[in-house]
Amino acid sequence: MRIGIDSYCWHRFFGEVYAGIETDPGRRMGLPEVIARAVALGAEGVSLESFMLEDAAPGRLTALRGALDAAGLDRVWAWGHPNGLGSGTLPGALDDLRHHVDVARALGARVMRICAGGRRTRTLPWAEHRALLLPLLARAADHAAREGVVLAIENHIDLTAAELRDLLIALDHSALGVCLDTGNTLRMLEDPLAVTDTLAPFVRATHVKDVAAHRGSPRDFAFWPSVPLGRGLIDLPAVLARLRAAGFDGLLALEIDYLHPAWPDLDAAIAESLAHLRGLRAGAAA
């Protein structure tokens, strides 16, 4: 397992600011700066969010891949935030997903995180969402397989572990797996270790996230802010041990989304989290 960082840690610097709970930092970044910061932080890999790519012109992709190769960084390409396939209600998004499979291949990413949906897109009974998603995911996986890319479906505050496992078993496709977001387990009001046990055999990518209870309703996103790894409620040593036991050897990508107000310094929270993650990896290997 390699220590990485997801570019979503810097989402505010790409114009995505959660209304009412975050502030705009007042400047913007680009993916080259993300790569430079990852290198400076000693990361071994990055997960790069597709919405942060200014354009997918061949020259830009070549330059981006060159920077990743020069830094020796493992990489995951990440598509679908915030709504993905709309839990099956946005079939037109399939064309964009397939386009980003081609982007992933151009960047040398063997894994691409995707979102079947998001926390706003679950509007129908599960049986209806399932029926809509299965053919879309099958077509996406067929295209990904042809390009040598594995699609890792995130538990994106939209699917329970049982529902995600149901999709994977029904499709039984070598180009489909899971991106396990450790913090989103609690946001779905599920037991993080039970979720890990259910999904570990399918995990191909991760968002290693810790969360703490804040205030309001536990059904609201803002109730579960990110905190530096080891400061929250997720039993990360147990999660990593289960992933290792299941044979996962991919990228452990730190992700911080809405950072708890008690930790106003994002840079410090990232540095502390990566140091903690290195310790967790060493412990899991012992």
Question: What does this protein look like?
Answer:
The chain is α/β, with parallel strands linked by helices and 286 residues long. The protein has a single domain, classed as Divalent-metal-dependent TIM barrel enzymes (TIM Barrel, Alpha-Beta Barrel), CATH 3.20.20.150. The protein is 40% helix and 15% strand. It has nine helices and ten strands. The protein has helices at residues 31-40, 58-71, 93-107, 126-146, 161-171, 184-187, 192-199, 236-245, 266-285; strands at residues 2-6, 45-49, 74-78, 111-114, 150-154, 176-181, 203-207, 210-211, 226-227, 251-254. The strands form two sheets. An eight-stranded parallel β-sheet has the order 7-6-5-4-3-2-1-10. It has a two-stranded antiparallel sheet with strand order 8-9. Helix 2 (58-71) links the parallel strand 2 (45-49) and strand 3. The longest helix is centred in the middle third of the chain and has 21 residues, at 126-146. The radius of gyration is 17 Å and the shape is globular. The protein starts with a strand and ends with a helix.
- Per DSSP, the total helix count is 9
CATH architecture: Alpha-Beta Barrel
Report the C-alpha radius of gyration, rounded.
17 Å
Would you state the CATH class?
A: Alpha Beta
CATH topology: TIM Barrel
Query: Main sheet: which strands, in order across?
Result: 7-6-5-4-3-2-1-10
Separation, N- and C-terminal Cα atoms: 13 Å
Strand count, sense and closure of the main sheet? 8 strands, parallel
CATH superfamily: Divalent-metal-dependent TIM barrel enzymes
**Basic shape:** globular
Number of strands: 10
Poorly predicted regions: none
Mean pLDDT: 97
- What is the domain total for the residues? 1
Structure class = alpha/beta
